[in-house]
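Subgroup meeting minutes
Present: P.N., E.W., G.H.
Scribe: E.W.

1. P.N. recapped why we're keeping a running log of single-chain structure predictions: easier to compare across weeks, and new members can see raw inputs and outputs side by side.
2. G.H. added today's entry (260 aa).
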Amino acid sequence: MSVRALPRAAARVLLLPAALIALWWWAAAASDSFYLTDPGTIAATFAQVWVSERFAADVLPSVGLLLTGYALAAALGIGMGVPLGLSPRLRAFAEPVLEFLRAVPPPVLVPLLILLVGLDASMRAAVIVSGCVWPVLLNTVEGVRAVDPVLADTCRVYGVRGRRRLTVLVLRSASPQIAAGLRQALSIAIILMVISEMFASSSGLGFAIVQFQRGFAIPEMWSGIVLLGLLGVVLSVVFARAERRALAWHRGLRAASRGE
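Output recorded in log:
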């Protein structure tokens, strides 16, 4: 992209958010509702509330909890998905139980996990894992099942077996679909982090938003919601860059197959 094209690209990216903020500002000015706060007040409140010790007390622990649960779900989903994808018998044996567990909404597990684990960070991480593991697991299974038979036969002919076959053929071939599952799990992790902190926590971003709502601190509540949105955007951008770097070979392969 040329230097001259950068302002145009930035304008296209910022056009819709600017229009939505302007619409929000107009709606808040035209309304006399106590619960609809204009963006200017929210921005000022945001600076007062979150650019302070509250950031270290509430936001950083929430982010750490989110990343911990997400990492555990990724490891569990990939670790279970690879053998299930490689073995049709194992997949048929485990499928009824997996389908039953996948159908249980993770927020419903909060009371049970409170009884089993207690009111601590382990319970909240378990809630995140219980919801994030499924897109990773299912995409890993499908990615492993979709390994090119020609490549599998080639590895067999050249004696590529065991761990080397797993890393060179199976995981590499399934990595685009695994990345798709990890991308879905990231958005689920943010939702479950907030839910777990709202129901069973005395700190964290979700707890702070609920406390603001209960105390009718409406601008503070809106600022917490905005912070959640910004957190989601930052994590999405970081993941997209990591994915683009890790799967550069895949994009190059697709471009070569199209003759580009």
